[in-house]
Amino acid sequence: MSEAEDIVYNTSIVALRRSGMTIKQKLLVLSAGLLVLMALMGTLALQGLEKTNAAFATTYHDRVMPLSQLKIVADQYAVDIVDTTHKANHQTISPDEALKHIGAAQAKIQQQWQSYSATEMTGDETELVKKPSARCRRRIVKSIGWSRF
User: What share of the chain is helix, strand, coil (3-state, %, to 5)?
Assistant: First the structure.
């Protein structure tokens, strides 16, 4: 140690000895200081968890929820519209009843599609979202063969 460091070290030891604090008081001050540090660390950890939770919520709402919305859209097309078309072609249901089922399916598709379109999308997703609406409608009309659709 240099002479200046030795003086500072000896001065601080002398100051502690002359402080008039008992061992009990020194332990209490030390414990209180550690508790304050632990509380600070806990607060910082909670803030970090809040940020992580917010990031996860964004991911959930922009990535996971759209998957369920797209599944509903796909199911409406695959199950309700196609199944109704087959039933109408086999004359199991009347054309008016088929149109009513298809109209209900289209309303549900439109609702889910709008919810999906409202989420934050990547550039590729945005391009893909613009294409299918008119194309899907033409395919359905063509497959059903009804002009009232």
Answer: 85, 0, 15
Q: Is 20 left (phi over 0), alpha (psi -120 to 50) or beta?
A: left
Angle ∠(81,83,84) on CA atoms, nearest 5? 65
Rounded distance between C-alpha atoms, residue 142 and residue 135, angstroms = 11
pLDDT 10s digits, 49-95: 999 999 999 888 888 888 888 888 888 888 888 888 888 888 888 88
Q: What is the pTM of this model?
A: 0.52
Residues 89-123: tens digit of each pLDDT: 888 888 888 889 888 888 898 898 888 888 877 77
Determine the Cα–Cα distance for residues 60 and 67; give it in Å rounded to an integer: 10
Residue 140: which residues within 8 A CB-CB, separation 6 or more? Answer: 77, 81, 85, 102, 149
**Maximal CA-CA distance, the chain:** 105
DSSP string computed for 119-137:
S---HHHHHHHHSHHHHHH
Residues 79/115/147/144 CA torsion (nearest 10 deg): -20
What does the alpha-carbon distance between residue 31 and residue 74 come to, in Å, rounded to a whole number? Answer: 62
